[in-house]
C-alpha cells in the first residue's frame, strides 16, 4: 500500500492569479490563512497562467519573491496546475479553458516554462508534477492531423522533462487530465486509445520508455465519476496498461436522483446553473445506458413536459462541490466514488501526488465566497475531510 507522504496540496486556481502580484497576494491572504487553521502541513498547488509565467521567466526577482512567500508561510509546492492557460476567472471560461490545445506551440512553451519554474520550487528530494489539458475539448474544431501533432508536442515535452532532470536532478512528470467531452474522457472509450497511439508514435521514434516515464494521467475523481465510471476499475486499467497516474485530484461532483419526479432536487440544481464554467451533465438510465449534454442548462432542468433526459435514474454534473459534503440538501454527491478511488490509488506500487481542487467556490450557490475568512474556513474543512478520508484509507489497508 502506497500513499504520498508529501503535504496534502490545495490548488490555488480557486483564487485569481493573473499576475505574480495576484499569485503572491492569494498565498498571503488565503493559503496562509488556511494553513493556520490546520493541524497538519499543507502544500500550495499553484496555478500560474501564461501571463504570470512570462513575468516569472523574464524577471528572476519575482520568482525569488514567490519562493520567499511560500517559505514565509510554511508552504511547499511540488505540483502546478497548467490546465488553464489564460484567465480562469473571466466572466465566461467554458470551452475556452481547453485552448490553446496540444497542437499549439504556445501550449508547449507554456508547459516547458512551468516545468522550469517548478524545478526551482521543489522541496529537496521531491518529484514534481504538472496537470494539463486532455489534448483538447471535443466541442472545439480540430483538423485531421490533430492527434499526430498533439503526440509530437507531448514527445517534445517528455524530452524536455528528461533533459531538465538530467541538468537539475529534479524529476517532473506531466499528467493529462481526462475530462467529460474532451479528447480524453472515458477511460476505455477515449483515454486508453489515445495513450496507445501516443506510445506507438513514440516507439517509432525510439523513445517509448521515456514518454511512459514522463507522460501520464492526472486522475480527477469528479470527472470520471460524472461519466458513471467504476473508478476502481478505471484506476486498475491505467495500471494494467502501464499508464502512470502522476497526480490525483481529490474532487466531488453533484448528483440529482430521479430527475423527473424530484422537483425539490431540480429546483436546487437550478441554482448551480452559472455562466463561467462548463458543467457537462450525464444521465444514467435503468438499463445502464448513459447519455450526456454539454452544459447544465435551466431549460433542461425545468423542461415541461420532460424529455427523455429527465427520465433517467440520476444525473451527475461536472460542478466541483465540497468534498466534505455527502449531500447538498435534496442533491447527493459522488463522495462514495471519491473514497473508493483513494482506496484503489493506495493499492498502487507508487504514490501519485494528491491535491484537493474545488475551484468553484466563487460561483458556489448559497456561499459567501467573497468573504475571505469564510472561504478559508471552508477550504480548511475540505482539507481536513481529505485528511480523514486518507486516514480511513490507510487504516482499512492495515
Task: Write up this protein.
With 398 residues, the protein is an alpha/beta fold. Helix content is 43%, strand content 15%.
List its traits:
2 domains; 14 strands; alpha/beta; six-stranded antiparallel sheet; globular; TIM Barrel
Which word captures the global form?
globular
Arithmetic mean of pLDDT = 95
**Count of the domains:** 2
Which stretches are poorly predicted, pLDDT < 50 over at least 5 residues?
none
CATH class wording of the largest domain: Alpha Beta
Q: How many helical stretches? A: 13
Total count of strands? 14
Structural class: alpha/beta
Strand order of the largest sheet: 1-2-3-4-5-6-7-14
- The CA-CA distance between the termini, in Å, is 9 Å
- Helical proportion, percent range: 40-55%
Structural Rg: 20 Å
Just name the CATH architecture of the largest domain.
Answer: Alpha-Beta Barrel
Give the ordered list of helices and strands: EHEHHEHEHEHHEHHEEHEEHEEEHEH
Would you tell me which CATH topology of the largest domain applies? Answer: TIM Barrel
Brief description of this entry?
The chain has 398 residues and is of the alpha/beta class. The chain is built from 13 helices and 14 strands.
Annotate the secondary structure layout:
Layout: E1 8-11, H1 20-36, E2 42-47, H2 50-58, H3 60-72, E3 79-81, H4 105-121, E4 128-132, H5 146-168, E5 172-176, H6 187-204, H7 208-214, E6 215-220, H8 221-226, H9 231-240, E7 245-250, E8 254-257, H10 263-270, E9 281-284, E10 290-293, H11 298-302, E11 314-317, E12 327-328, E13 331-333, H12 335-345, E14 353-356, H13 372-397
Parallel strand pairs: 1-2, 1-14, 2-3, 3-4, 4-5, 5-6, 6-7, 7-14
Antiparallel strand pairs: 8-11, 8-13, 9-10, 9-11, 12-13
Helix pairs in contact: 1-3, 1-13, 2-3, 2-4, 4-5, 5-6, 5-7, 6-7, 9-12
Amino acid at each position: 500500500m502506497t500513499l504520498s507522504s508529501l503535504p496534502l496540496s490545495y490548488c490555488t486556481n480557486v483564487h485569481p492569479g493573473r499576475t505574480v502580484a495576484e499569485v503572491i497576494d492569494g498565498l498571503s491572504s488565503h493559503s496562509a490563512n488556511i494553513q493556520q487553521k490546520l493541524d497538519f502541513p499543507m502544500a500550495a498547488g499553484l496555478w500560474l497562467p501564461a501571463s504570470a509565467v512570462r513575468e516569472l521567466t523574464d524577471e528572476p526577482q519575482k520568482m525569488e519573491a514567490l519562493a520567499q512567500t511560500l517559505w514565509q508561510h510554511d508552504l511547499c509546492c511540488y505540483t502546478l496546475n497548467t490546465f488553464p492557460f489564460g484567465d480562469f476567472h473571466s466572466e465566461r471560461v467554458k470551452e475556452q479553458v481547453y485552448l490553446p490545445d496540444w497542437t499549439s506551440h504556445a501550449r508547449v512553451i507554456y508547459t516547458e516554462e512551468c516545468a522550469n519554474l517548478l524545478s526551482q520550487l521543489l522541496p529537496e528530494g521531491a518529484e514534481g508534477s504538472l496537470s494539463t489539458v486532455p489534448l483538447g475539448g471535443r466541442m472545439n474544431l480540430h483538423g485531421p492531423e490533430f492527434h499526430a501533432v498533439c503526440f509530437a508536442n507531448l514527445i517534445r515535452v517528455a524530452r524536455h522533462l528528461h533533459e531538465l532532470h538530467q541538468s537539475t536532478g529534479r524529476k517532473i512528470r506531466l499528467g493529462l487530465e481526462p475530462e467529460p467531452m474532451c479528447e480524453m474522457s472515458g477511460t476505455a472509450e477515449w483515454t486508453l486509445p489515445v495513450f496507445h497511439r501516443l506510445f506507438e508514435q513514440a516507439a517509432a521514434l525510439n523513445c517509448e520508455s521515456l514518454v511512459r516515464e514522463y507522460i501520464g494521467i492526472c486522475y480527477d475523481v469528479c470527472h470520471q465519476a460524472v461519466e458513471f465510471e467504476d473508478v476502481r476499475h478505471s484506476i486498475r486499467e491505467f495500471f494494467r496498461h502501464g499508464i502512470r497516474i502522476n497526480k490525483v485530484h481529490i474532487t466531488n461532483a453533484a448528483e440529482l436522483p430521479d430527475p423527473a419526479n424530484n422537483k425539490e432536487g431540480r429546483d436546487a440544481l437550478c441554482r448551480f446553473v452559472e455562466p463561467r464554467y462548463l458543467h457537462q451533465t450525464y444521465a444514467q438510465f435503468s438499463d445502464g445506458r448513459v447519455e450526456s449534454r454539454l452544459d447544465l442548462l435551466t431549460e433542461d432542468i425545468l423542461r415541461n413536459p420532460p424529455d427523455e433526459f429527465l427520465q433517467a435514474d440520476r444525473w451527475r454534473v461536472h460542478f466541483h462541490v465540497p468534498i466534505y459534503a455527502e449531500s447538498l440538501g435534496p442533491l447527493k454527491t459522488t463522495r462514495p466514488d471519491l473514497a473508493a478511488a483513494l482506496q484503489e490509488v493506495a493499492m498502487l506500487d507508487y504514490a501519485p501526488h494528491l491535491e484537493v481542487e474545488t475551484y468553484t467556490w466563487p460561483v458556489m450557490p448559497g456561499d459567501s465566497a467573497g468573504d475571505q475568512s469564510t472561504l478559508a474556513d471552508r477550504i480548511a474543512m475540505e482539507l481536513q475531510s481529505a485528511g480523514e478520508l486518507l486516514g480511513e484509507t490507510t487504516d482499512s489497508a492495515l
